[in-house]
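Re: the 215-residue chain
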Amino acid sequence: MQLILKKYILSALIVLVACTAYAQGDDDDKIVQINGVTMTADSLRAVPNAVIMLKNHYRGTTSNQMGVFSIVAYKGDTLEFSHLGFRKKLYVIPENIEGSQFSMVQLMVQDTFYLSETVIRPYPTREEFNYAFKYWDIPDDRYERARKNTEALMLRALAYSIPKDGGEHQSAYQNMKAQRAVYYGQQPPSNLFNPLSWAEFYEAWKRGDFKKNKR
């Protein structure tokens, strides 16, 4: 009885493995890799960053700067191509493709947008326009803010006002030690007749570095 049961279980396992292998082989035959290019229909220029989605599968890819894309799908699936300024396109992958590779060129047609009418009117009076031109405070855009933050006077003011960090203090200390090491064992030269030192002294005197702090 046990021998018959073992033969029955073994036969069932063999049939199950065979069915699984057949089903897996059938699925492998349906898988295809799509390699393609998205281009404009009128001038045959590449359409970069186009979105290619597998309809009803919630996965997809995008084309690169040359319009080239690659995606793995099943035969019979539907590819949906979309891009801002172009009409959506649907492409059904043929089921009679031979092999597992397929190449295609998808042409995208530009879409036309119709905007609502805009009427530009002059300012009511010349006096109101002059007042707005003189006194209205228009905020700076990002380009103007970046220009102000990188101008020479602003950078110089920040260099004087912002204290040094640990790295800058360490660098200044190392430079001082290196300068002292140059004249190690001898008398360093005097800056009494150095015009650069006098210029630095004059600038410090104008800044008020030698004034006593009044408490």
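The first strand starts at residue 31 and ends at 40.
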